[in-house]
Amino acid sequence: MGKIFLFDALREATDEEMEKDSSVFVLGEDVGHYGGSYKVTKDLHVKYGDLRILDTPIAENSFMGMAIGAAMTGLRPIVEGMNMSFLLLAFNQISNNAGMLRYTSGGNFKIPLVIRGPGGVGKQLGAEHSQRLEAYFQAIPGLKIVACSTPYNAKGLLKSAIRDDNPVILFEHVLLYNLKDEVPSQEYFLPLDKAEVVREGSDVTIVTYSRMRHHVMQAVDILICDGYDPEVIDLISLKPIDIQSIINSLKQTHHLIIVEECMKTGGIAAEIIAQINDNCFDLLDAPVVRLSSQDIPTPYNGNLEKATVVHPQQIVDSVRMLLS
Predict the structure, then answer these.
(1) Where is the Transketolase-like pyrimidine-binding domain (predicted)?
(2) 80: helix, coil or strand?
(3) Which residue numbers are catalytic?
């Protein structure tokens, strides 16, 4: 085991898979000589050359379409979005092509494509660079969606995504790249459809993902001191949602809080609540509590920006109110 940054974990995963499989290549803006906006591809062009670490023009719809075509012909492209917000420019290619072609071709084409990059509310990046697109893409059939939250799951998820024969979107949070944690030296893979039980507990189930995992764990430290015993689940997989792990937890706790950075209207939490109502409503002793970002464009002003997202004290207060 060794402690590395999250961006290094992603770089290691990319390097290992490119070394083992010559069909794997990376493309995107400034991924080559510059090494990527957050240094996930730093120096890889020296090892693999400019055709496998391919710098593209600022034309998301064009290079996304090229990547999908490459995937159809047997290559395994990794598209880095300089900021995930920019991938809205390639929404047509991702939805109508990447998500549908395996089905509409009757299985004649596989689409082994990974789309990854930074997103979420950073620190005064402005509205257009603070998008949370997970709910945008969650409705698209044919896609798999995962969100990493630690260096460990970042590496394991990316390696699994690269080897998958379906299009996978990996959401990385802009404020987690410098998170440092232990990662095994031996090779490992993580499933793309399983949640992680971060902490077992008996009082309340707190479901979260991405950066909010760390806000939740800060809240848990306070709650434990107050005598509460929360269970924490990191979704990791946003499509498909591992609803069974949530159901198993609710059989013990009977209370559910969902903490997300996504928008409240039509967000990931909204989908989870719908599935809970469909599958296990009778397990609940109280209504589900949903803690989400405000339904407004993210302000540039630092104090206003901070007010739009969920913070640990809000989670603490919600647990106390739910269990009172």
Answers:
(1) 4-179
(2) strand
(3) 60, 129
